[in-house]
Amino acid sequence: MIKHKIVMSLAATVLIGCFSQLTMAKCAQPIEATEAELEGGYRDVAELKNAFIDTAPKRRNDGLAVGAVGIDGGNKALLIKLAQEIENNMHGQFDSLLIAHKGKLVFESYYSRGRINLPHYQASATKVYTSLALGRAIQLGYLTMADLDKPLISFLQGLDTSKLTKGSDKITLNMALTMRSGIRLSDEQKEGFEQMSKQLKGQRHAQALLERSAPISAQSQIFKYQDDPMLVMHVIDAVVPGTAEAFIKQELLDRLGIEQYRWQTADNGLPEAGWRVNMTSRDMLKWGTLASNKGKWQGEQLIPQGYITKAISPQLHTGDEDIFGGGKDVSKQGYGYYWWNAELQSGDKRFYSVSAQGGGGQYIILIEELDLVVVVTANRRENSTLQLMAERVLPAFM
After folding, report:
1. What is the reported pLDDT for 381?
2. Of the residues 163, 220, 262, 376, which has the maximum number of CB atoms within 10 A of its CB?
3. Mean pLDDT of each 10-residue bin along the chain, 398 residues long
4. What Cα–Cα distance (Å) separates residue 189 from each residue in 170, 181, 212, 228?
């Protein structure tokens, strides 16, 4: 596991008057988890009795610029009303809602088990971090943009290609980044694979996967939500100096100032690529800001702009039959490099949205036209977060 560092910037027992700026007589529970809660993790954190809602977030020396709703944009009354409804469980089980406008965090709120210093489980939002790690490898010259269209196995020098299933060379990085590797395992094969997974260290894992898959063809290389991100992690580990774990920490987490996190290690010894990562809500905002700024963080180009453009653009359309967090005003769902995209309708206007999405209701949402980055953490899969964005958040900034 990539180690996380626990930083307590305020005493965990301090009560913070979250509504003092809102002229409401209400006081919050502590917004910081205790050391014991941090060690135990999300499930060990007590439920907040009152929400913490801040319309002028504090600067915390974490690299995030801050502002205030109303002064730096946004309708304060609309957002406070929404936050009160969330506190009353009218929109599902939220843990946090953060909004950045024009590069400044202007609204910060925590509910339920949400805490400002607690790394929250990310589920499949993790996939976006894997995509950005590949982008960082391109920025540093370990790969090129042209490599995205090359066979993925060409980067894995330890494979015995004579034993691989037919068509393995048709899997490009681009295909793996868009869930179109075409790998297909039967249920029996999947079960057997799980039983032997701990013995498949490093590229032995990729070897076994590509040996056991049904032949790869144009018919199989269609969108299928599966563990393709681990193929991308194999490539990262193969091309960067040292290990993928050290690379991610040194070249992304450290540069973004992310210290409070958990990043689990998969059975094959590589960092998990599609799940089992925990990040604080503020650090999720950093990942979103990095993408929103076309790969720049505090003036430094960490990810190539061209890569970001491809990553957040619809490489394919997945259809509108099943949109996670969707509703009547969410349509035209597509998929980029592990980023989902959809059109949000607010009134008579339509806005293109890009989002990292994780089961349980984890989101990093970008609305370029309004210069918004929104972070949501939650603890129920059933949610309508994108619909709520269209109905309630976008109007506050239009």
Report:
1. 84
2. 376
3. 46 37 44 92 93 96 97 97 96 96 98 97 98 98 98 96 98 98 94 90 96 97 97 98 98 98 97 98 98 98 98 96 95 98 97 98 98 96 95 98
4. 22, 17, 8, 16
pLDDT score at 30: 55
Residue 197: which region, alpha, beta or left (left: phi > 0; alpha: psi -120 to 50)?
Answer: alpha
Give CA–CA dist 124/356, Å, rounded: 8
> Which residue in 135, 67, 97, 81 sits closest to 364, CA to CA?
97
Please, what are the domains in the chain? Answer: 20-123+309-396 (no CATH), 125-276 (3.40.710.10)
Residue 320 C-alpha from the chain's centroid: 21
The model carries a pTM of: 0.93
| Residue 205 CB burial class (10 angstroms; 0-12, 13-18, ≥19) | buried
CB under 8 Å to 258, separation ≥6 — which residues? 252, 279, 283, 286
Dist. CA 32–CA 281, nearest whole Å: 12
